[in-house]
Amino acid sequence: MKSRIPVVLLACGSFNPITNMHLRLFEVAREHLHQTGLYQVIGGIVSPVNDGYGKKDLAAARHRVAMARLALQTSDWIRVDAWESEQVQWTETVKVLRHHHGELLRARPQADTPGPSRAPSPASAGAPELKLLCGADVLKTFQTPGLWQAAHVQEIVERFGLVCVGRAGHDPEGCIAASPVLRRFRHNIHVARAPLHSEGSATAARRALRQGCCVRELLPDAVVAYIRAHQLYAGDDPGQRTGPPRSGGDAS
After folding, report:
1. Cα(129)–Cα(146) distance, rounded to whole angstroms?
2. What are the backbone angles phi and psi of residue 169, rounded to the nearest 5°?
3. Left (φ > 0), alpha (ψ -120 to 50) or beta: where does 194 sit?
4. Residue 44: which residues within 8 A CB-CB, separation 6 or more?
5. pLDDT of 168 over the 80 cut
6. From CA 209, how far away is CA 175, in angstroms rounded?
7. Is 209 helix (H, G, I), strand (E, B) or coil?
8. If we measure between CA atoms, which residue out of 92, 21, 78, 9 comes closest to residue 50?
9. How far is residue 194's CA from residue 196's CA, in Å, rounded to a whole number?
10. CB-neighbour burial class of residue 229 (10 A; exposed 0-12, middle 13-18, buried 19+)
11. How many Cα atoms occupy the beta-carbon half-sphere of 249 within 13 Å?
């Protein structure tokens, strides 16, 4: 795969809590990109949203980050990054992409940095591409009036690119066809056609936890143990946030 374009996948969202489905999104997206013959996925980043997002029943960021780290402790290519959650306020998805893109540029090998007499290579001097990873339900929200800034949507699909994993009951191709911006940059949007059912969502997991049902098929064992130890999602909790959600940064 040495001739392939290196890619890092970034997933922004509540991860409230992180689920097996979230982890599966990364695996399906990586497999899809590898099958194109053009890309090699070299890393994945889970970026839990800031507490200021205001989503109902949103557990405190410290818990969501901790659960994500537990879920990914055995992964050799996906990691958790707490930068977004540690900002003083909620941060739009496009700004999170800009941040991580800058980090990737700074982390590239010094040998790849063009010198005074050496021109940059076509592949951004060895820097990997950063693509936003999401489910088809998030792609559909691009059409929701007032939820995303049009300029942000264009920057995401034009500058970075998008990998969308299909879920049952959603039509990502229809969403793309209905949007002039998404149609224009269709070449930079990858749709992985693997059905992921909504029953595995974080919403379903929180509902099951409140009802006292078994959630081991929905959540990693380490996450289940953490939730029980900290008594999360059992009902009204001072450590959970409520309020109107903000635009541009929620995947679950």
Report:
1. 29
2. 90, 0
3. beta
4. 8, 9, 10, 11, 26, 30, 75, 77, 78, 79, 133
5. no
6. 32
7. helix
8. 92
9. 6
10. exposed
11. 24
Q: Are 134 and 164 within 8 A, CB to CB?
A: yes
Rounded Cα gap, residues 136 and 18, in angstroms: 17
Size of the chain, expressed as the number of residues it contains: 252
pLDDT at 13: 96
CB atoms within 10 A of CB 160: 18
Query: Which residues, at least 6 apart from 177, have a Cβ–Cβ distance to it below 8 Å?
Result: 183
φ/ψ of residue 155, rounded to 5:
-65, -40
Condensed to tens digits (0 to 9), the pLDDT of residues 178-220 reads 999 999 999 999 999 865 454 578 988 999 999 888 888 899 9
Q: What letter represents residue 152's amino acid?
A: H
| Contact (Cβ atoms closer than 8 angstroms) between residue 7 and residue 127 | no
Q: For residue 193, give the DSSP letter.
A: -
Model confidence pLDDT, tens digit, residues 14-69: 999 999 999 999 999 999 999 999 999 999 999 999 999 988 889 999 999 999 99
Phi then psi for residue 109, to 5 deg, are: -55, 140
